[in-house]
Amino acid sequence: MACSPVPRGHEVCALSPFIESYNRINGMRYAFDRILDASGSSPQPEALYVDQVTHRRLVIEHKTFIWPPDHFQLHKSCHEVAERIEGIIGPLLDPGRAYRLELPGDLRGSRPDLRAFADGVGATVRDRLSAVHHGAVLRWQRQGREWSFCEESDFEREYFQPSKGLIIEFAGSWSALPPPDLADEYAAVLTDLLTRASDKFRTHADARRLLVLDPHGDLRFTPDDEWARLLSSVAVPANIDEVWVSYQDLITDMVCGWMLQPLWPIIGEECIVSCNPPAVSPDEAHSSETESVSAGR
Question: Which residues contact 188 (CB under 8 A, 6 or more apart)?
Fold first, then answer.
């Protein structure tokens, strides 16, 4: 999920599950008041929220935190290559068989280069499809252009995957944040986000000011100790009261959800909220008002 950052102008929608959970965790009743970042000529945070009981004010700035910097371009390139290959081999595949194509997850290169790579994979599969049907596995091991194609049995598919047809996967290594040789670069990116958020909070000294980070790429599933290490390496401006992480992803093979976690001034437990929570009776809903959302890491 989350193939691209939250589109500009839709940040308030992405913050809706966050503010609901924030209220539940902190016993507050903040409600959306108005969008701020489209008002006036000076930089403003995304939106203002006002507590319906205490009338306290809360402003939130939402920032996409990406590593590597070209993560979204790489993701787009992978999709374009996969679609081009599928366009070549799709009409030739037996719909009663199961196939798997594995491609590298960091396809870098010019568009002509990537198209040539896709055409080469497609041509190889097309020319050797009969051999695949007799058990051959097609492989190419050139660094940065590794790929494989094979036929697989029904039992090799996961229960949530179709039993027939083509599945395309992208292989890639994931490492915790931050690798020693990139620590300074991660810190520089985060410092820039903190500085820009601080600038937007300058005219909101009467409100609680939250920075909510939406991590992508290598940052997506960062352990608590690595967040702590990163935040200890930067200076959080005095006018930022809290830093949180909030993102949408799969919480099971079939169910999506929102992962939310306080990062600063202290790291708290990760909260997981289903995108489609089960229906409950009015009594159940009332009894759950004092309970926190499911937590764990």
Answer: none
- Is pLDDT at 9 greater than 80 in this prediction? no
Listed residue (162, 150, 153, 167) closest to 86, CA to CA: 167
Q: 51: closest CA among 76, 66, 32?
A: 32
Residue pair 217/68 in contact by the 8 Å Cβ criterion? yes
Distance, CA of 222 to CA of 178 (rounded, Å): 9
Residue 160 C-alpha from the chain's centroid: 21
According to DSSP, the β-strands at 138-140 and 98-104 are unpaired
Q: H or E segment at 154?
A: none
Using CA of residue 198, residue 200, residue 203, residue 209, what is the dihedral sign? negative
pLDDT tens digits along 250-284: 877 777 889 999 999 999 998 888 876 444 333 43
Mapping DSSP to helix (H, G, I), strand (E, B) and coil, where does residue 40 land?
Answer: coil
**Residue (of 60, 64, 33) closest to 247 by Cα position:** 64
Starting at the edge strand found earlier in the chain, the sheet holding 165-171 runs 138-140, 147-152, 98-104, 165-171
- CA angle 116-99-171, nearest 5°? 60
> Where in the chain are the domains?
11-69+181-287, 72-171
Instruction: Determine how β-strand 256-264 pairs with β-strand 271-274.
Output: antiparallel
Residue 213 has pLDDT above 90, yes or no: yes
Q: For residues 174 and 223, what is the distance between their CA atoms, to the nearest angstrom?
A: 12
Residue with the two structure tokens 């169910």: 255
Helix axes 183-201, 224-231, angle to 10 degrees: 70
